[in-house]
Design goal:
Distance between the termini: 55 Å
Radius of gyration: 22 Å
Mean pLDDT: 95
Structural class: alpha/beta
Order of helices and strands: HHHEEEHEHEHEEEEEEEHHHH
Number of strands: 12
CATH topology of the largest domain: Glucose Oxidase, domain 1
Number of domains: 2
Length: 293
């Protein structure tokens, strides 16, 4: 199958490189983490996700030092990755020729955007470039938001920042701002390929979680575990604080591994408050089924 850029992964190659995922996939091969998991991921903190992933041996999933278009808001979605490199005229000319044959429209910086579907997050490595590094401004940002319903994570600058910030829901993480245009100095080396954002290797289909303290990229096969563990942490914290206020237990009993009688009390508390807790009822019912106390 002809590729317009050397690093594009075929659907079959994406399947090969994401072997731990056994669920549904998009036509391009990307893992399709369920919408319900994405929605629940919005309440997961960066610290929780980072810690859970480290426990499974994924030590390099966090990238920080970003600016954010909408501080205090949360970005969650499935990664569509793109890798840019400094422009080399002979390579770029060949890719333009191939892109035309394959039906790609416009400049290369538009090609990844044309692939976006609802729930995606466009993740681009532009090697931290600020001057002549912006691969989106307010027009392309409007298109991205229309197609995906999300913002972006770009290891680069963005331009037209005033217009970008006016887009509701376009929660995006980026390295800086600059009025210059990137296209004359870069070329699109790959789409839906392994991509580096800071210290992280991002794979197509990873779940992107962006908050004010940075971005975590969650391997799809661990997304449900991250969500469920975070919800359990949240519920245990609520229960522990309530019992401390009620002076049922001492801080020493709560701030260590709980004894069996506290675990049993926690299960009863979940059942009694199932309709009023911060975790959805179905998730609590599932948690109760898994508990032995």
């Amino acid at each position: 199958m002809e590729k317009f850029a050397p690093l594009n992964l075929s659907p079959e190659e994406i399947v090969d490189y994401t072997p731990a995922w056994s669920g549904e996939r998009f036509g391009d091969g990307r893992p399709k983490v369920a919408d319900n998991i994405l929605e629940r991921m919005r309440l997961v903190t960066i610290t929780e996700a980072w810690g859970i992933l480290r426990g499974d041996g994924f030590h390099f999933q966090y990238a920080g030092d970003f600016l954010c278009t909408h501080p205090g808001q949360v970005l969650v979605g499935r990664a569509v990755t793109a890798m840019y490199m400094p422009r080399r005229p002979d390579m770029r000319a060949l890719m333009e020729e191939k892109g035309t044959r394959l039906g790609c429209v416009g400049d290369q910086i538009s090609w990844p955007i044309d692939r976006l579907v609802p729930g995606d997050v466009y993740v681009a490595d532009v090697f931290g470039k600020i001057e002549q590094g912006a691969v989106i401004g307010d027009n392309l940002a409007t298109s991205i938001l229309r197609k995906s319903g999300n913002g972006v994570v770009h290891d680069a600058a963005i331009r037209d920042i005033d217009g970008v910030e006016e887009l509701p829901g376009f929660v995006s993480f980026f390295r800086g701002v600059h009025p210059s245009y990137a296209s004359p100095t870069i070329m699109l080396a790959g789409v839906n390929c392994p991509t580096r954002i800071g210290p992280v290797t991002v794979m197509p289909g990873d779940v992107v979680l962006g908050r004010k303290d940075g971005v975590v990229f969650v391997p799809p096969h661990l997304a449900e575990k991250v969500v469920k563990t975070s919800e359990l942490i949240r519920l245990r914290d609520q229960f522990g604080k309530q019992r401390l206020r009620e002076e049922v237990y001492t801080s020493g009993e709560i701030d260590r591994r709980w004894e069996d009688h506290i675990e049993a009390d926690f299960s009863r508390w979940l059942e009694a408050h199932i309709d009023e807790l911060s975790v959805e009822k179905a998730a609590i019912q599932e948690l109760l089924k898994e508990r032995t106390w």
